[in-house]
Predict the 3D structure of the following.
Amino acid sequence: MSKSSRAKTEQMRAEREEAARKQQSRRRLVAILGGLVILVLIGAIAWVAVDAAKSNDDSPGNGSGELVIPNNLNGDGAIPVGDDSAPVEVEIYFDYICPACGAFELANGAELDRLLEDGSIHLALRPIAFLDKFSSGTEYSTRAANAMATVIDGAPEAVWDFHGAMYVDQPAEGSEGRTDEEIAEIALEAGVPQEVVDRFEDQTFVPWVVKVTDEAFESIDGTPTVRLDGEDFEGDVYTPGPLTEAIEAKL
Amino acid sequence: MSQSLDEAALTATEPWAEGGRLNRLRHSNTTIWVTMLVASLASLYASFVLSIDAIRLAEDPNADLGCNINAVISCGTVGASWQSSLLGFPNAFLGLVAEPVVITIAVASLGGVKFPRWFMIAAQAVYTIGVLFAYWLFQQAMFEIGALCPWCLLVTVATTLVFFEMSHVNIRDGNLPLPGRLKGVAQAAVRSNLDLVLVIVWLLLIALTVVAKYGTALFA
């Protein structure tokens, strides 16, 4: 091996070692700084998680509180509307965010109004809340059903108007539903006294809503479910007419 | 002169086989392809579950899905949104089509197959579109739909890992048609494991966002 080629090899090795050293110190720097950032992030996640769990303990329990049954329910635990001596009972299961229930209301609300007024029917309303997952985490179904329970408890005469008003411009599935303030406004306009409206936020009847929702699914598959004198109405509930005809056939 | 010597030094020692055992392991073919294989299998499984859920939701919009745990953790809410069938069919079908390709690439590479450069560029390009789509969906679910779906999150994380390893291998092997300087910077970053740190930080940031926004519901 010539002298110059040996020098060249030497130089190459030196440069190689130098490059490797540089590379190694760069790796170490990345590992240390990266490790620090990662530790800080893990700490932040833990801190936020603990904080969230703690704030949960402070908030009033949803549905786990004491069961309070609203006053003025009928003997079957439903919300009665109209004169219960009227010949036909119309029982309706519904959820306030369920679009099909909104369509039912739109098609049949006016007819039910008329039949109530002429004394042909009385209603048994069964608000349930199984579609909370469709209100972006605001649990609109439960809040709305609790409001309805509060109205029958404190202002039974306003129940039917409140119910109808809740389906006017019904919020879509997947939206945030109505705010508590919006529900309160609707109730006031429907003639619910302020002191009853003020009780919505206590969520007194949430455990009752949870209970009747569970019980409902022992006998229904979805909403709306409509029963005439206890028998499932199988006809078209989304166009005006068929339900009225079935009711009138019973008179 | 020194330029060519530098290059000689670089090629003389295999640059990806330097440093300690952990470092060599991280840049080894086995680690890269096994990670990609596991992530794409997870993603395929999640896509499968989501596809079945999509069909069940089509049959019955109120179907009770296994992962409808509460108001926030709910595949039903996400699955019922327009975003989850952006192209007119459930997005999860795309996973059923795309992930087996990734699985094939990973398995073949583990078996020693060397794919041509144009193939790897194409794979990287298509998967980049996939990862962008996955993050658009994640953003929509987080901030527009307002619900979390565990299987979608698994897809997000798995897609990130596949993208990460695919980029890793393509930068390592110099497959990407980048300008010379950028290529050098990318290779230096990968050699010093900056990419690994970045992907961990990224996933932790996502976890932090989820906990910050939905913590109260998650720990209910």
User: Anything to note?
Assistant: The two ends of chain A are 118 Å apart (CA to CA). The longest helix of chain A spans residues 3-58. Chain A has a mean pLDDT of 88. Chain A has eight helices and five strands.
